[in-house]
Amino acid sequence: MNAPVVAVANANKAELLYVWEQATPEGKAVIVCLVIFSIIAWSVMIYKAVQMRRAKQLNRFFTAEYRTQNNVLDVFDRRVQADGCPLFAVYQAGSLELDARLKNDDGNGRKKFVSLKGMEHVKRSLENTVAQESLKLESGLILLAIAVSGAPFLGLLGTVWGVMSTFGHIAQQGSATMAAMAPGVAAALITTVAGLLVAIPSMFGYNWLVHNLRVLTVELDNFAQELVSKMETEYLEEK
């Protein structure tokens, strides 16, 4: 029962090895480059997926803790730390700026209110932190974008080069039989296959990661606006 399966597997392996052996040095160089592209793309996809999954989990934990506080600076005053949590980074930056604006001139205790100008500084600090956290989450995605757009063209380059070399070799021999053309053309086409094998998974991974990045960015923006609103309600001096 297993003999046909083994035979087919060996036939496929021999076929791929034969095509690889027939490939030109340029085609082999293109395939090696595409293999490197594939390793980089998969490494980026796995790393970014783990990073975004962890960011979502930490955001949920921090949000649950933040909602239980009566005062906007309660979490800050307790010196809570949540490294790797984007929402906490935004909260920490805003709280540090607000705390600095609320401190008395002697450095002891806090004022009851902060001025409108001071609150504007808090807003700018929050906006800068939101942008920084978004850039952190986005870092590395350019490599996937390059793999999606560049791998098919690199594979096509290898194919065109291989076909050109095959026809040039046939023209020199003066023999245009199928047996003379098929090995070279097959070896040329394998670079296009390799390019697509790199680009297709990268495309799905890139689109999924961009969607999650957009969700996290909107979550950061919404939290920053909510945080500013709560800070203004509790600490903005009314005139």
Lay out the secondary structure.
Layout: H1 3-22, H2 25-67, H3 74-77, H4 86-102, H5 116-138, H6 141-173, H7 178-235
Helix pairs in contact: 1-7, 2-6, 2-7, 4-5, 4-7, 5-7, 6-7
Quaternary structure type: single chain
Unreliable runs: 1-10
Mean of the pLDDT scores? Answer: 85
**What is the approximate shape?**
rod-shaped
Q: What is the total tally of β strands?
A: 0
Helix content: over 70%
N-to-C span:
88 Å
SSE sequence, one letter per element? HHHHHHH
Strand content: under 5%
Please identify the structural class as seen in this structure: mainly alpha
Round the Cα radius of gyration to an integer and report it: 29 Å
> Could you give a short account of the major beta sheet?
none
Walkthrough of the structure:
With 239 residues, this protein is an all-alpha fold. It has one domain (3-235). Helices cover 83% and strands 0% of the residues. It is built from seven helices and no strands. The chain has helices spanning 3-22, 25-67, 74-77, 86-102, 116-138, 141-173, 178-235. The model is unreliable at 1-10 (pLDDT under 50).
Keywords:
239 residues, mainly alpha, disordered N terminus, rod-shaped, 83% helix
